[in-house]
Amino acid sequence: MSISLILLPVALGAVAKAAVAQSSPAPNVCTVSTRLRDARLLNLALQDTGARTTSAAPDAIDVEWAQMTAQLRRDAEGVWQAHFHGTEDRQRCVDTVLAIDAAYGLRVQAEVLRRVRDQAPAAGMSLVSQTANADRSVTMVLEVRE
What we know:
By secondary structure, the protein is of the alpha+beta class. The chain has three helices and nine strands; from the N terminus they run E-H-E-E-H-E-E-E-E-H-E-E. The strands form two sheets. A six-stranded antiparallel β-sheet has the order 2-3-7-6-5-4. It has a three-stranded antiparallel β-sheet with strand order 1-9-8, covered by helices on one side. A hairpin with a 6-residue loop joins strand 2 and strand 3. The chain is elongated. About 11% of the residues have low confidence.
């Protein structure tokens, strides 16, 4: 008997808040919210988008890209607010957060794949195959040992 898993590079819960742009009273600032749980994976995802982290704490990350900076702050509900400086272009802010979200989804996917591979033997399974698909999903086939 075998089990097939298809893992999509989507961070659950993140997309729901990612596209909410809010107006800011300050010029050259826009704010976007997103829900990403793992700060370590978020830092890696930020690097994947070309950002350089200038300051990091459990609930606060400051980053910079070429011609734009952002202050990310996590509230009590786990929602990150990204306050962008150096642009008034809301779409650019939303697109940046969506790029972070996509990179985060790929990081989550890689972490899940690693855990499945690591824990399969203890669960009585072995990895038969792993295929990366054109849509960035990954198909794993696990065989249940008898």
